């Protein structure tokens, strides 16, 4: 039966909204439960006449659940702005009564412990999830219509479907961005619909609705789990362990409709062939549904199945089949396109059509989907053997904070670890219980574990829709032994115990914190906020201290020399505003909170290097950062800076759009941060003001294309090389016309991990691992000129660690500057060729920004 008719475009708001009722009109041809409230009845207007808000969607699902025995609700937690992510659980009344057993069965299937005495515990589970990009709104609207349809119709195929299947409908996966967009679209909608692409309705103000609260693309966060919405969503996935996941999006308005399979040669090699075979079989159902309504479409092009951090690919490495859907976007009510006017009404209908085809296809292939999932996990379900077992022995350079972060991420992905109960030495590395864990290879999530640590550099196709690598060894700066076999007696299922609050000997004169510890930076910020005097070391040193004095109440006689890197912090216990006892209590409380190791010294005398009273210990000044924001800045990278300063360091951070800078007194800010972006909206007056700001003692921390703008405005002397210049590295003579796409792929740096060689004596490099792995995802480097500057880091000669980077780039970047610090008058510019915060998962290099904040102004 055909449900959808593509209606001609109408020019008034009332006509367009009325057209949306064709989904509800389709219900008139079936036996329908008329006691259930339809979306239009709940809203008071036809679905699609106005863009929905997240609260309206949640309230409707709650109403439907109260009216229908087929519908219950589940939650994937809350967004950053405390909007709840509600999912409608739709199945037969019999299945609803057995949901607890079904959930127990589903959540344990990967472990091979599914035995139960109750019946009907293993239905097919289909998860249809919509609008993870907040301004891709048609999916969420379709989900509302679909929830009512599945609850209300008594069509035989639906009743059979619900007997065999649990359907999970999540209308909005990014509630914060969704509401940002819906308010924008509704605020700019008139009585007469404007289809002109230039109309405000179709061109959102910065940052737009795509992103979440911290301006992150949540459809790139499935692996990294930096945001609460993602954490809740992944927990929801593993709770239900679906067989099929439909991931509904919108794309450019000039396009038509896309569904997977994607480009065959761009499937991640770790994805099983059976997964792609099922994707192809499912595609036949989508083709039929769209052909019936004469909606043109394409597949096998443009989009790929490579990066596992997206909603359509995360299922592929977790025992399910994920399918991406992309509908041309109206970005409002209606928008002109080369294929005619794209309307919200038609977009909703298309998403509804492929939602139905997803259900029909999954149900028809349910035995194959179930077998695929069983086979996927059966090869990995092995019990731990007594004695030695192979796995990854992992140590975090950043200490307890980063190893705990790794363990937390792995646990959310259902990857288990073993804790060390003693020091293990392997390959000249000391793996300690405080900063190390063992990750066994033999476990149900083996495939995902391999994906997280994958370091391949060769690919069948060099085109990537997103990044070509993301290995956690580099992102978290881990030291790793891949095929380690520690004895079981050295391992434990639980961590070594609770971190206790330290007490320091009464004869201590100073407390010292090694700066290599990741949490030393947020601890420093809290000390500064309380008015505590803290100094940092410009050079390495060591102290002879009483062994065990980190926790002991009494001094001990045996001495040990402890080495400290440059950047390590000293808190003198003699300060004007605090007694020594008060200071010790403050530091001990914060140290326990942040799991930072603090050493108490009974003397200012150093075993090596400078004494604690030396001028080489510099007082850290309080910081007042400002981030430049607005339409000519990269929203995601700006959000990553904000996330780090706000959530990690805990600094009150001012954000100002470029057009307002000219009216501000910039001297109130110690640092100005500039993320990637063209900065073409900054006026001449503002550029002069920024130049004066640096000359008079301010610090600018800028990266990627911001460096190009600073150079053009004569604020930065160092000359960046941009893509236009770097593209000349590639030979194009004699190239066939059809080879242009391959050339473009080679010229693009979607995301490759490269190694930096640091100048360990420079404050920007203090406390960092050397060499330092960073993610490079833009074509930019520095010209080597005679302009005086200090190179804080350069690319290694053999720089590629993992991912794809054209040989031309590898040769061009080798041994060239990656981080430069320029002096301009009394101030400084910290120039970074790369984003060292990449998606806030690059924990190993994020300290560069803390170094720039706390150490660079003192130089």
Query: DSSP strand (E) fraction?
Result: 15-25%
Radius of gyration: 29 Å
What is the approximate shape?
Answer: globular
Range of helix content: 25-40%
Structural overview:
With 859 residues, the protein is of the alpha+beta class. The protein contains 25 helices and 34 strands. A 9-stranded mixed sheet has the order 25-24-26-27-34-33-32-29-30, sandwiched between helices. The chain has a 7-stranded mixed sheet with strand order 1-2-4-3-5-7-6. Strands 15-10-14-11-16 form a 5-stranded antiparallel sheet. α4 (54-67) runs parallel beside α7 (138-152), α7 (138-152) crosses α12 and α17 (520-529) packs antiparallel against α18. The longest helix has 21 residues, at 344-364. Residues 1-22, 383-387 and 548-556 have low confidence and may be disordered.
């Amino acid at each position: 039966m055909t449900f959808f008719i593509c209606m001609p475009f109408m020019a008034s708001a009332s006509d367009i909204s009325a057209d949306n009722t064709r989904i509800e009109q389709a219900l008139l041809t079936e036996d329908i439960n008329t006691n259930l409230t339809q979306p239009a009845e709940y809203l008071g207007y036809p679905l699609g006449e106005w863009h929905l808000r997240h609260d309206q969607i949640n309230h409707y699902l709650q109403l439907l659940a109260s009216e229908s025995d087929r519908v219950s609700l589940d939650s994937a937690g809350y967004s950053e702005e405390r909007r709840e992510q509600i999912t409608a659980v739709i199945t037969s009344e019999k299945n609803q009564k057995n949901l607890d057993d079904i959930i127990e069965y589903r959540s344990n299937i990967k472990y091979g412990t599914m035995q139960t005495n109750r019946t009907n515990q293993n239905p097919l589970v289909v998860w249809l999830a919509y609008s993870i990009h907040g301004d891709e709104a048609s999916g969420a609207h379709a989900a509302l219509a679909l929830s009512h349809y599945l609850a209300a119709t008594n069509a035989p195929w639906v009743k059979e479907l619900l007997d065999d299947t649990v359907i999970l409908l999540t209308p909005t996966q990014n509630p914060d961005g969704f509401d940002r967009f819906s308010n924008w679209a509704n605020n700019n909608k008139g009585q007469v619909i404007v289809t002109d692409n230039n109309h405000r309705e179709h061109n959102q103000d910065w940052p737009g609705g795509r992103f979440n609260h911290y301006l992150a693309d949540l459809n790139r966060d499935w692996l990294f789990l930096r945001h609460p919405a993602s954490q809740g969503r992944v927990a929801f996935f593993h709770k239900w362990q679906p067989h099929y996941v439909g991931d509904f999006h919108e794309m450019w308005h000039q396009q038509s409709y896309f569904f997977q399979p994607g480009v065959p040669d761009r499937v991640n090699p770790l994805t099983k062939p059976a997964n792609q075979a099922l994707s192809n079989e499912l595609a036949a159902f989508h083709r039929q549904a769209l052909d019936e309504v004469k909606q043109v479409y394409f597949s096998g092009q443009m989009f790929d199945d490579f990066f596992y951090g997206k909603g359509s690919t995360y299922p592929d490495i977790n025992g399910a089949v994920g399918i991406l859907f992309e509908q041309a976007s109206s970005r409002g009510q209606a928008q002109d396109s080369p294929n005619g006017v794209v309307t919200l009404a038609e977009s909703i209908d298309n998403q509804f059509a492929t939602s139905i085809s997803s259900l029909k296809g999954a149900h028809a292939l349910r035995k194959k989907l179930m077998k695929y999932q069983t086979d996927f996990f059966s090869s990995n379900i092995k019990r731990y053997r007594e004695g030695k077992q192979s796995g990854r022995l992992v140590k975090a350079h950043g200490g307890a904070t980063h190893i705990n972060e790794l363990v937390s991420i792995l646990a959310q992905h259902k990857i288990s670890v073993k804790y060390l109960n003693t020091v293990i030495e392997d390959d000249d590395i000391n793996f300690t219980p405080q900063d190390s864990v063992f990750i066994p290879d033999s476990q149900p999530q083996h495939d995902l574990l391999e994906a997280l640590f994958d370091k391949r550099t060769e690919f069948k196709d060099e085109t990537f829709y997103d990044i070509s690598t993301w290995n956690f060894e580099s992102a978290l700066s881990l030291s790793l032994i891949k095929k380690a076999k520690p004895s079981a007696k050295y391992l434990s299922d639980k961590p070594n115990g609770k971190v206790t609050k330290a007490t320091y000997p009464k004869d201590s004169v100073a407390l010292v914190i090694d700066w290599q510890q990741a949490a030393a930076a947020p601890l420093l910020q809290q000390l500064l906020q309380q008015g505590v005097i803290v100094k940092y070391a410009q050079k390495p040193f060591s102290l002879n201290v009483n062994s065990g004095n980190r926790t002991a109440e009494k001094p001990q006689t045996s001495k040990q020399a402890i080495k400290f890197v440059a950047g390590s912090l000293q808190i003198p216990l003699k300060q004007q505003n605090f007694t020594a006892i008060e200071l010790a209590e403050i530091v001990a409380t914060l140290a326990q909170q942040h799991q930072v190791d603090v050493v108490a010294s009974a003397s200012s005398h150093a075993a090596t290097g400078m004494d604690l009273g030396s001028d080489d210990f510099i007082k850290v000044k309080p910081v007042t950062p400002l981030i430049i924001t607005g339409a000519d800045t990269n929203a995601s990278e700006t959000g990553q800076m904000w996330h780090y300063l706000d959530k990690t360091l805990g600094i009150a951070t001012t954000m100002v759009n470029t057009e307002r800078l000219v009216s501000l007194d910039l001297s109130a800010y110690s640092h100005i941060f500039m993320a990637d972006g063209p900065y073409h909206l900054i006026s001449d007056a503002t550029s002069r003001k920024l130049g004066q700001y640096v000359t008079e003692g301010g610090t600018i921390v800028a990266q990627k294309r911001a460096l190009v703008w600073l150079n053009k405005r004569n604020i930065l002397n160092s000359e960046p090389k941009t893509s236009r210049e770097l593209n000349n590295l590639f030979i194009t003579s004699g190239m066939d016309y059809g080879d242009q796409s391959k050339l473009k792929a080679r010229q693009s740096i979607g995301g490759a991990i490269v190694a930096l060689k640091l100048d360990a004596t420079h404050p920007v490099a203090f406390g960092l691992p050397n060499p330092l792995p960073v993610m490079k995802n833009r074509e930019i480097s520095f010209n080597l000129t005679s302009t005086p500057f200090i190179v804080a880091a350069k690319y290694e000669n053999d720089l590629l660690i993992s991912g794809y980077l054209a040989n031309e780039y590898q040769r061009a970047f080798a041994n060239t500057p990656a981080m430069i610090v320029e002096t301009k008058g009394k101030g400084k510019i910290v120039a970074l060729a790369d984003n060292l915060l990449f998606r806030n998962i690059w924990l190993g290099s994020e300290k560069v920004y803390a170094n720039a904040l706390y150490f660079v102004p003192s130089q």
